[in-house]
């Protein structure tokens, strides 16, 4: 009986530790981010457009904003135990988009910089932080945390 109780305690402790790690990792995403570079299908977004583009993340909700207008909203799910670390975006801004497959991606933090690369609406998750001219579904963004 003691062995069974010890095993259950160990499992509970590992589960709580993993939940705490996931919450700590999610905390890193919180806040307002300025888009400093973006590319899709190997084409870089114009610098003028990037100046007006921000990402706001609160809890597990991400908003893409251009100026004061929210252009896209998604729920994010992360897994920091993978290499590279993974992120999935599930659209939630319009009823018809809620049934779409999630966009699968990878992410990397470097200080106050967040690098994201994802494939829109399903498909294979990227394995590197790059886009390709023949793949319009692949997006790469580099974000810089805005000082509050």
Give a short synopsis of this structure.
The protein has 148 residues and is of the alpha+beta class.
Characterize the structure shown.
The chain is of the alpha+beta class. The protein contains two helices and nine strands; from the N terminus they run αββαβββββββ. The protein has one domain: Beta Barrel (Lipocalin). The chain has an eight-stranded antiparallel barrel with strand order 1-3-4-5-6-7-8-9. A hairpin with a 5-residue loop joins strand 5 and strand 6. It starts with a helix and ends with a strand.
Write the topology of this structure.
Elements: H1 2-29, E1 31-40, E2 43-44, H2 47-51, E3 53-58, E4 61-66, E5 69-79, E6 85-91, E7 103-110, E8 113-119, E9 138-145
Antiparallel strand pairs: 1-2, 1-3, 1-9, 3-4, 4-5, 5-6, 6-7, 7-8, 8-9
Key attributes of the depicted protein:
alpha+beta, eight-stranded antiparallel barrel, 9 strands
- How do the helices and strands follow one another from N- to C-terminus? HEEHEEEEEEE
Number of strands: 9
**Strands of the biggest beta sheet: in what spatial order?**
1-3-4-5-6-7-8-9
- Work out the helicity level: 10-25%
The residue ranges in which pLDDT falls below 50 over 5 or more consecutive positions are 12-19
